Amino acid sequence: MPQPSRSASLIVGFEAIPLRAASVTGDPLDTIAETILVVLTDAEGRQGVGEADAPAAVVKAFLDMPSEHLWSQGFRDLLIGADPLDRAGLWSRLYEATIYAGRRGLGIHALSAVDIALCDLAGKQAGLPVWKLMGGARRPQLRPYCTIYPGLPAPGRGIPELMSETARQFDAALALGFRAVKMEVLFYDAVTDAELAGLIAEGRRMLGEGITLMLDFGYRWKHWRDAAWLLERIADCDIYFAEATLAHDDLDGHRHLAARAPMRICGAEMAATRFEVREWIERGDVDVVQPDISRAGGLTEMARIADLCELHGVELIPHGWKTGILAHAGLHLQAISAASPFVEYVSPAVYAGTLRRDLVTPEPVVADGLIALPEAAGLGFDLDWTVVNRYRADRQE
Ligand code: MG
Q1: Is the pLDDT of residue 396 over 60?
Q2: DSSP letter, residue 373
Q3: In angstroms, rounded to a whole number, what is the distance separating the alpha carbons of residues 198 and 196?
Q4: Cα–Cα nearest to 149, from 310, 348, 295
Q5: Which residue from 363, 356, 368, 312 is spatially nearest to 338, judged by alpha carbons?
Q6: How do beta strands 47-52 and 315-316 pair?
Q7: Cα of 307 to ligand 1 centre, how many Å?
Q8: CA 282 – ligand 1 centroid, Å
Q9: Which residue of 71, 122, 190, 348 pairs with 100 in a disulfide if CB–CB is 3.0 to 4.6 A?
Q10: How far is the CA of 284 from the centre of ligand 1 (A)?
């Protein structure tokens, strides 16, 4: 039974709000043009906000589903009247009550948005930043890396254009204070592997020494030996990690590649829950796992994954490519994780995206590659309701 003193903190409102803005880049991989918000309200009117990086309309349907039976219960029925401080217990209850269609994938993405909102609300109620509520910081400062994404090859947008856009974004990231960047080389059939090795070397030359450089290949290869061929050819480019080399479910291929490659091999950006991440660690034997807070189970589950990674000597560098809600959540995760030397950070000053730029404030300051621990209560952002109402996808004609 809830304690009488907590009655003002119990959840009285649960809403799933899909947002869609026009894509600024027109790129087929622009996943920032939409999001799905979860907004939880307590009896005193305080609100916690989360989001999921998954198709908004489908996640909304999952979040709004009515209770059908023991293993398919509606989120609303489980959350109204609940105490946000019970988030680990709530996580288990929500996981078990939605396991018929949840367990992996979409149901866990929906649960992730709820968990992020629970953390935000509990922090606001306690007047504490979420990292403090979750046990305190394991590091004095936060270290983001900035993802550099020039887009996919398209008619009129060939490799020279993509490389000059990459250069522009490198300059913008370094000018903002980032000291680690990830070059997205999702060039696919537009270049041979030998040509790609040359472009990566050009990327390193653009940055000079002293800047951490990661690479994302966008699932370029089908066989680990082909990936190994290229990675060996860029051994002198001082690459921190190679991401999305092989198919996401090819864990045996990742194990072979990780044993051979001259840099860290990583993956698991689409993984859901600690159970799937454990498979990446034990069978995939990768150096770095990249589950996304807004897809893998929220901050509560990511804290467990961080412990799992610390135990196994694996780095946890979460995927993060959504609005400022996820960007802020990533900072709190890195704060509590001893296994996370970096966190992915999409900067609105580098990559154009209306929701990323406008949905929440403030934007954390990066100085000499670092961000200070957040001090505001909850996740530390303010949601702009004018922006929410402007881009609501469930009220547009
Ligand atoms: Mg990626």
Answers
A1: no
A2: P
A3: 5
A4: 348
A5: 312
A6: unpaired
A7: 23
A8: 21
A9: 71
A10: 17
Q: CA 40, 46, 50: angle at the middle one, nearest 5?
A: 35
The amino acid at residue 305 is I
Q: Distance from the CA of 98 to the center of ligand 1, in angstroms? A: 28
CA distances from 296 to 74, 224, 304 (A): 20, 26, 11
The token pair at 214 is: 């990661």
Say how many Å lie between the CA of residue 390 and the centre of ligand 1: 29
- In the reported structure, the alpha carbon of residue 244 is separated from the centroid of ligand 1 by a whole-number distance in angstroms of 6
| Distance between Cα 253 and ligand 1 center (Å) | 18
pLDDT of 370 above 80: yes
Quote the CA–CA distance of 273 and 102 in Å, as a whole number.
11
Task: Please give the full DSSP string across 249-318, using - where no structure is assigned.
Answer: T-HHHHHHHHHH-SSEEEE-TT--HHHHHHHHHHTS--SEE---HHHHTHHHHHHHHHHHHHHHT-EE--
**Tens-digit pLDDT profile for residues 231-290:** 999 999 999 999 999 999 999 999 999 999 999 999 999 999 999 999 999 999 999 999
Tokens of 18: 């899909």
Question: Ligand 1: distance of its center to the CA of 216 in Å?
Answer: 6
pTM: 0.97
Query: Ligand 1 centroid to 219 CA: how many Å?
Result: 9
Q: 53 CA distance to ligand 1 centroid (A)?
A: 13
The single residue listed with the structure tokens 């209306």 is 354
Residue 56 · residue 393 · CB < 8 Å: yes
Residue 195 main-chain phi, psi, to 5 deg: -65, -40
DSSP sequence for 105-169: THHHHHHHHHHHHHHHHHHHHHTSBHHHHTT--SSSEE-EEEEE-----BTTB-HHHHHHHHHHH
Question: What pLDDT, on the 0 to 100 scale, is given for residue 397?
Answer: 47
Instruction: Give the Å distance between the CA of 319 and the centre of ligand 1.
Output: 7
C-alpha 71 to ligand 1 mean position (Å): 33
